[in-house]
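Morning!

As promised:
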Amino acid sequence: MNNVYAAIVCGSSLLIALSGSARAQYFASQGNAAGAAENIEGFTVAGKASVSAKPNLMEIDLEVSASSELSADAIVKYRDARRRLHDAFTGLKLENIAVEERGLLVDQKGMMMNPYYFNGFPQNNRNKTEVQLARKLVVKGSNIRQMDEEAVLQLIAKLLDVAQDAGARIGSQPEFNPYVYNPYNRSSSGLVRFVLDDIGKLEEQAYEKAIEDARARAERLARLSHVELGSVVGVRELIVPGERNVNADEDTAHKRLESAKFQEIPVRVELLVRFEVHPQPKGKERAANP
Amino acid sequence: MRWAILTLVLLPSFAQAQIEVVDQDQVSNDKPSRPFVMPAASTEVKEALDDFERFRRRNAWERALKALYTIPEAQARRFIDGDKGFIVPVARKRHALLNSLSPEGRTAYRLFYDAEARKLFEDADGPAELGNLERVYSAYFLTTIGDNAADRLGDLYFELGRFDRAADCWLSILREYPDSDLTPALVALKAALALTRAGRVSELTSIRRELADRYNDEKITVGGQTGSPLQLLERLAGADPQRADATVSTPQPLTAGPDLSAPVEPAWQLRFADSVEAGMTSPELTQWESNPLSTAIPTAVSEGANLFVNYLGHVFALDLKTGKLRWRSAAFHHLEVSAMQNQGRGNNPTRYAIMASGDFVWSLARDPKDQNFYAPFLLTCRRAETGEIVWHSKDLADYAAFDLVSPPLLAAGKLFIVARTPATPQQQQGLPQELVLAIQPRDGKLLWKTEIGTFRQNNMYQFFYYNQAPVAEPRLVYRAGALFVDTHVGVLARVDADSGSLEWGFGYRTDAAPIQGRIFFGPYQPPDPIGISSQPLSAGETLLIKGVQSDRLYAIDTSRMALLWERPIAKSARLLDATEQRLFLGGPELSALNLGTKALAWSTRLPHGSTDGEVLVRSEGLWQLTPRGIFEIDPQSGAVRRIFRGQDLGAAGGDLLLTDDRLVAVSNRTISAYPRRPAPARAERGEDPALNRKRASNE
């Protein structure tokens, strides 16, 4: 029995000792951040800026897809559909129009749903799935910044008409399952996408303005706090224009801003800027507090 | 003990070895997974046939033949699997089995059954003549009297106008009875004459060659005329108005396609959708537009100077020249009421049909306001001039148990239509049966009805969720005295148009297709296009079929009962028209299949697809009404030659009809009649006789 008590006491002691070391580590990390604590001294302010510009590009997503029991048939259907679409846009003979192709998706057409059951009971294991070939095409109209609204409208109408007459499906839509109704599944982001992809210069301006805005805010705080504002000691980007998470299947990787409306697109920048502060000289302090 | 354990361990493996390896793709009338079964023979019949095979292998002729003759005569008319997907009557199977007997078997057969057959033959007189001869032909053909019975039966069928059966009888003597005492030249001539009248061109060509090669030196006398068989054939068939080439090769020529090279204003336009929508409030309009009824395209047919239209049971007649409404059965805006009720969604717009000939118009419709999901479709005959009802299937007791499901077909002076018996689950009714009805067009008298088969499914689960799978609607084709019924649930059946006897079926691969309309509840949903059942197509003597839920295209030689070829195809495809070289297909795309190589030649996707709607197919082009106008397609390349926007934009596409002086575009909103300009190029383009194969439904 004594041995049991001894074991419990030893175990408890060990636990207490271990937690002590863990605590020591925690506080040590706090203690090691003494330098950082010094850095916290100063003012951290947000600097915001926005510079707007009209889009320079418009895009229309099209989808060419074909499916068949025989892969050879699917290829003929897909090839013809793609060719007709290219021919239709080439026939427009517009210099600022280009058709860009995305990757080819080779898939199987939706597994057969059994209309007599719900929740996707497979109808029959022997049902063959059809081969489906699909490719997203993006029709790009460039240099639209110089155009007036009427001209842009005319161009869009022409492109949409040509695409529809060529039998293209406008917009990339997920395969719709007629047996499971979900009205939220069919969200639309508009037929046309207006893009600002030459944002380098605008971004520069926006950053400059954001820093200016941050400095103005910090100066106000310094004035109200009776300290003197020093130099910038740290900056953190909160909002960076045109950046998005990109995965392997993402079509566009470069920086760009998009809008569903034909309007000026704002290039927004938000920064968190930390300024050094120094105590005010005595004379100034007195002048500030009569 | 050890032996007992060993036996116990090994027994299951023996049992496993006995499991029959069944080809999953093999089509069989008996397969429980098939959605439709033709009237199946009993298990005893199958056992009798198995016994026959077993005893025949052992040369136990008496027992083998006895097994065959245990089949009762009533069962001889039921159906059993034949070769290569064909489903044949037991009598035909029995006939084939007897013909396959070895010489010893034949000798034994004659020994056992000659007396019985002879007795039947001698008694074949008066009312019993046809029955007795038929019995000898099907059950005792190999006896010494079999050839004589077949010859007499052929004569009888020829006199009755059943040339197909007559040809079969005489051909049996030529092909299966080598020791016949009958003059082969005479039998061959008779067979050739029957084949001529039955329109079986390829078999006629072969027998004509035979007459020239083998019997040219013989002189025979037929109908008071003497000459060589070939001369007599030329003489008799030449004077015959129903020559094979007249019935098959040169049907009524189709008019050339429309000339839409320049814009043209419609001569008149009927905006019936505006009448329906007049006075609707905004929520009502939303409700209407989300209802499948709003996309219903009226079915229309032209006859003489009139256009007859069936718009969801509202039948009306228009003057083709002026567009003036001659008469109508009800006001269009009454449709609003049915659209406001959910049961209106069970109303399948593709099932409405109309047909006109001479002074009468027949329409197939159901009452849109009927609250019964399973309300039957009824046939109404009206006077073309006034719209006055001549007869209505609702008033005739013969039709009380039927839901009429196919577009009616007028051929050989009869009106044919496919009917189903109802299967209302709430009333614990059995599985629905499918029948063909032959009707006297003017008074609705039922001439005959023939059961094609029974469904192995009903619609019990169809109430609760969306069902937008294509609905199996049977289609009828008439060819040279035979009626072909594509059930679209895995069976093409051949029925004698005169007597109504079901001759054979062809089972094709298919998934189960719903057999009744779209019934669904829930939030409103924009209707999507749904493929429709295809009409079987004639390409020469070949019949092309594709079930609505089948992923196979089949080419069948209906005369020889042979499957010529089959090919995988997208389930969504539908047959549009065929020439000797090309088959045009609808579906999500419009496409052309090269019938020589069986390869897809081209495919063109048109706005809204080509899932439904009547596409005009001519040698010089294809025309389809789409929501973006009438598209003209080059039949060689599939390129869109021109788009004629017209006055039908904003509609959901529809049908195109061509009359002598009008191109009629029928959409879900309007009926527009465009004047057909005299096309100077049309004469230069000429007509492609190979394309003129659209004879199936308009004889």
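The two ends of chain B are 79 Å apart (CA to CA).

Hope this helps with the figure draft.
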